[in-house]
Amino acid sequence: MKFLVTGANGQLGKDVISELKQRGIEAVGIDVDILDITDENAVLDFFGEVKPDVVVHCAAWTAVDAAEEEENKQKVYNVNVKGTEYISHACAELDAKLVYISTDYVFDGKGTDAWQPDDKCNPLNFYGKTKYQGELAVQKYLSAYFIVRIAWVYGKNGTNFVKTMLKIGKKRNTITVVDDQIGTPTYTFDLARLLVDMSLTDKYGKYHVTNEGNFISWYDFAKEIFSIANDMGYDYSSQRLAVLPVSSSAYPVKAKRPANSRLDKNKLIEQGFKPLPEWKDALKRFIHSLDLQKDI
Ligand SMILES: NC(=O)c1ccc[n+]([C@@H]2O[C@H](COP(=O)([O-])OP(=O)(O)OC[C@H]3O[C@@H](n4cnc5c(N)ncnc54)[C@H](OP(=O)(O)O)[C@@H]3O)[C@@H](O)[C@H]2O)c1
After folding, report:
1. What does CATH list as the number for 2-159+184-214+260-277?
2. Among 30, 32, 78, 160, which residue has the most ligand 1 atoms within 8 Å of its CB, making it the best to mutate?
3. What is the pTM of this model?
């Protein structure tokens, strides 16, 4: 069984490669320096040479606000839609399974019910639109696919909300964080285990995956980040650092975000997969794995 992982220098791809290596599974990790997924012939040639049995497609344009800039839109489209289409086509030629990583941003965030995997998609921003079009490309070419929607991602190998909070929380005395976008975070280390478990089965389809636990706002998430770091002996105490809730309207950004990012993950249990640990437990393990002097 041979795996090919795209986006292998990225936040999730790196953890997927480590998980595969740890299990002794043969894995080829690629990033844009080895293969630009927007080059159709290069994708078909490369995949034809490697002949993977499973492809975990983590590569994407992930800069959500920059994706709104007119001068970036063609590039975003090429990576997230065309790149995914070429990879799906290559998988179809090789009879390989594809794990496509998607996002909560395919939904419009209306209501308060948790989204089911088959709910209607209606993305609010350009990044979300291209990730959704990527999903459609996967479904057009393949039947042996997993579309795995994740949300609020953090891990050791990237810039993310947790690291940003710890960094700015060191310097400031007040931080405002939005409290009207609700979801659950996803730790790439935990997700990598499930993605590998999943891809060794033929329980294909669309899935929602985040860490378990109660749904929270970004404000709740920030409070927990500071509480854990403070318990580790770093001064993120509420006496020194005030964390204030604000509404999204008070925090203007280029790309509109869904207010309701609650993802229903029951299908994981129905299909016999082991869900991820609770988000508080994951966050604690992640922050403890960082060197808060050096990494932050
Ligand atoms: N981060 C989140 O909060 C989040 C939330 C929901 C879903 N997701 C999805 O989860 C997946 C993994 O996200 P992540 O956080 O690990 O992203 P990431 O750290 O940005 O990694 C993505 C990787 O893709 C590479 N890439 C970009 N353009 C490429 C191209 N043309 N050819 C080949 N590789 C290319 C990037 O290389 P460069 O860095 O050199 O451009 C980067 O190494 C993505 O599909 C993303 O859409 C992420």
Report:
1. 3.40.50.720
2. 32
3. 0.97
